[in-house]
Design goal:
The protein is of the alpha/beta class and 227 residues long. Helices cover 29% and strands 18% of the residues.
Amino acid sequence: MKTSNSLPDRTLKVLNLYAGIGGNRKLWTGCEVTAVEIDPEIAAIYQDFFPDDIVVVGDAHQYLLDHFGEFDFIWSSPPCPTHSRINKANHLSPYKDNSAQLAHGGGIKPRYPDMKLYEEIIFLQHFFKGLWCVENVIGYYEPLIPPVELQRHYFWTNFIIRGINLSGDNISRGTRDSWTEKLGMDISKYKIKERKDKILRNCVDPVLGLHVLNAALNPIKLQGELL
C-alpha cells in the first residue's frame, strides 16, 4: 500500500479507545485489537463479546498519549454528551425558573464542551504515522475541524470515507429490544449500574464500523495516486 501512512505486511494492530461494548468493532476480522474502557462493568461485557481482544480498564485519553506508537490503526470515540444537540436543548437556563424541570428529574446544567475531542484529533494529525479515525455525535455547534458526516456521527480521519446507505437511526424512538436486534448484541443478562438502553444507543452500528475500517485499509485512488 503506497501511502504516507503505509500499513505493515502483518496482522493489523488496532487500538479501540472508549470502547464501550464494542459496537464499532463487532464485524472487524483479521486484526489484533486492544480496547480501552474506563467503566469496569462495561469493559467486562466487551471482554465477553470479544474474548481474544486485550481489554484495558483505564483512561483512554491518557492511554492514547502513552501507547499510540504501538498501533497501525486507531479508532477513538471520546465521550459525546457535552457536544450533543441534547446537551443544548435540555440545558437549564439561568434566565428562568427551572424548578418544574428539576422536579421531574430533567435538565442539564450549562457546561463547556469537552475539548479532549479536539486534543485527540490534533494530536493524531501531527504525531501518529498510522491510520486513524475519531468519532463523535453531530454537535450543536459548527465543528472546529471539518468532519465527514455519516448517519448520526461525525468522523475525522486521515483517509477518505465514502457514503453508505444505512437504515434509520433515530435514537429517540428506539427501544432496548430494537437496539439489541439492530446491533446483534444482547446485554440483558448483565447486572450493571449504567442504563442498558444508553449503552446500546451509544454504540456505532457494526456495519458502519466495518465500513470505516475498510475505507482505511482500501484507500481511494485520485488522479493515479493513493491517498
